[in-house]
Prior knowledge:
By secondary structure, the chain is α+β, with helices and mostly antiparallel strands. It has 3 domains: 2-67, Uridine Diphospho-n-acetylenolpyruvylglucosamine Reductase, domain 2 (2-Layer Sandwich), CATH 3.30.43.10; 70-186, Uridine Diphospho-n-acetylenolpyruvylglucosamine Reductase, domain 3; 190-272, Alpha-Beta Complex (Uridine Diphospho-n-acetylenolpyruvylglucosamine Reductase, domain 1), CATH 3.90.78.10. It has helices at 29-36, 87-96, 112-117, 171-188, 209-215, 244-262, and strands at residues 2-8, 20-26, 41-43, 50-51, 56-64, 71-73, 78-82, 99-100, 121-122, 125-126, 131-136, 139-142, 148-149, 152-153, 159-165, 167-168, 194-198, 222-223, 226-228, 235-238, 271-272. The longest helix is centred in the C-terminal third of the chain and has 19 residues, at 244-262.
Amino acid sequence: MKIYKDFDFSKISYIRIGHTGKLIVAENMDDLSQIKMMEETKILGNCSKVLFSKKRYKKNFYKLGGDFLKIEKLNDETIMVGAGVKFTTFINFMINENLTGFEELVGIPGTIGGMIKMNAGAFGKNISNNLVSLETLDGKKDKSEIYFSYRETNIESVITFATFRFVKGKKSRIMKNIEKFIKLRKRNQPQDAKTLGSTFKNPTSYQPAWKLIDDVGLRGFCVNDICVSAKHTNFIINRGKGSGTDFLKLVSIIKKKVYEEKKIELELEVEIL
């Protein structure tokens, strides 16, 4: 177990907002058992969907490392993955093993555990589609025991490992698909910006959040250095010195204006801490 008493969370936040607090890295199940006994604990993934909005935290934040960063082949098409593994690392493993099934998700900057917890997805594909089972602090769960919906699950326990099943494919075809989805992301999303990705869930498939925000005239609107992206209006970006307060104020303005003009209540996709 590694403990960082005054960790700067802005270093790991994808929007580069955060203050100081305790960060623990759990490297094995014994570490997790100890952390479970602590008060006010909160697990973190890759922090690509988390806003650290406060100046200081009393919580014991922890991440998974060590044993939870392993990837193991159970057979040619079934893979067990540690919940702390970054999705980019897993995609590279799949490419090397000629496994296909997650090309649509390329570019999502999460960890396996975090992505499963929120049922991350893109281009009509969700990470749960290829899931077989999970191992959690409370035991093993088959996929059939878990409720999955749009950016939501009923998983409450800490995920430690996940097992997926894929099919073999040709590496050239896999790479071609990956390149296609990377190009689509670059064309439609602010790739180099400091952002937490999609800020709001889409109310419906025919009323995506970006269109609602665009329709009410908020494209490019800013609160200090926190702005609605001009490239994709469901992305909120930090132009440099934005704060958590600025982010929350902009979110409030967006929700209020969309409700006033469209009578639709937007729901956050990012987590506010």
